[in-house]
Amino acid sequence: MIELKNVEKSFGRVKVLKGVSFSVSENERVALLGPNGSGKTTIVRIITGQIRPTRGTVVVCGRDRIDESVKSRMGVVSHNTFLYDDLTAYENLQFFAGIYGVDDSRIRELLEQFGLWRRRHDLVRNYSRGMKQRLSIARALLNEPDILILDEPTTGLDVEGRERLFEAVKDYKSTLLFTTHNLGEAEELCERVVMLRDGEIAYDGEIGDVEETYRRVML
Ligand SMILES: Nc1ncnc2c1ncn2[C@@H]1O[C@H](COP(=O)(O)OP(=O)(O)OP(=O)(O)O)[C@@H](O)[C@H]1O
User: Fold this and answer.
1) Ligand 1 geometric centre to CA of 130 (Å)
2) What integer is the mean pLDDT of 14-25?
3) Edge-to-edge, what's the strand order for the sheet holding 29-33?
4) For the whole model, what pTM was predicted?
5) What string of H, E and C letters represents the secondary structure of the chain?
6) Which is nearest to 19 in space by CA: 3, 27, 29, 8?
7) Which of 4, 15, 16, 177 to mutate to test the pocket of ligand 1 (most atoms within 8 A of CB)?
8) How far is the CA of 39 from the centre of ligand 1 (A)?
9) How far apart are CA 184 and CA 187, in angstroms?
10) Looking at this predicted complex, what is its ipTM?
11) What tens digit of pLDDT does each residue of 102-114 get?
12) Ligand 1 atom having least distance to the Cα of 39
């Protein structure tokens, strides 16, 4: 579903990704781990078509151009919430439901699932950070995407929000790429782990005892 081959990315003179290769098969659940600044979000931005690699190839859903048809098959939760502040929560989901041809009943289901139904008519600008994050997750799940990409999705979530997210991700049966700094979360949701250090892959394998592997490979 996702394949990166020798991907390099430079910003100005700084090379942030130094020849990254890994793939994620259909229905596989992969955690992407690594310290601050190791390049995880840069990889996510490349896979989701927000930026292009300087060198190398990226193939997603069999396509080497991340165009709208590929993007419509991905659900993404990232630092960018992809929400409109001047619309209500309901209107935000309605807008994306319109693009994907998703039924109104799915909007209600997700708003209830993420505990936002009562506040559905509030403007997103008046939402708290955690509420925005919950809505962003609902938006990513709206069209039951073939690939779910979660870049540090628990940022700002309270205990209940985190539990609702994990329930939703466990119910979701397709391909998952998940970046986190929480090794326990990676172990709970994923079967494989890719560890990134300074723009290079340091480990790619079964998740196993992720804390032990992380300590051995990264520290
Ligand atoms: N637009 C940009 N211009 C210049 N440098 C950038 C840009 N985007 C990212 N970088 C640099 O690329 C490196 C990797 O950043 P990235 O956000 O991918 O790391 P990360 O692994 O996601 O980190 P974190 O765990 O802190 O979120 C960092 O040194 C960052 O400063």
Assistant:
1) 23
2) 97
3) 74-77, 147-151, 175-179, 29-33, 192-197, 200-206
4) 0.95
5) CEEEEEEEEEECCEEEEEEEEEEECCCCEEEEECCCCCCHHHHHHHHCCCCCCCEEEEEECCECCCCHHHHCCEEEECCCCCCCCCCEHHHHHHHHHHHHCCCHHHHHHHHHHCCCHHHCCCEHHHCCHHHHHHHHHHHHHCCCCCEEEEECCCCCCCHHHHHHHHHHHHHCCCEEEEECCCHHHHHHHCCEEEEEECCEEEEEEECCCHHHHHHHHHC
6) 8
7) 16
8) 6
9) 5
10) 0.98
11) 999 999 999 999 9
12) 18
**pLDDT tens for residues 155-199?**
889 999 999 999 999 999 899 999 999 999 999 999 999 999 999
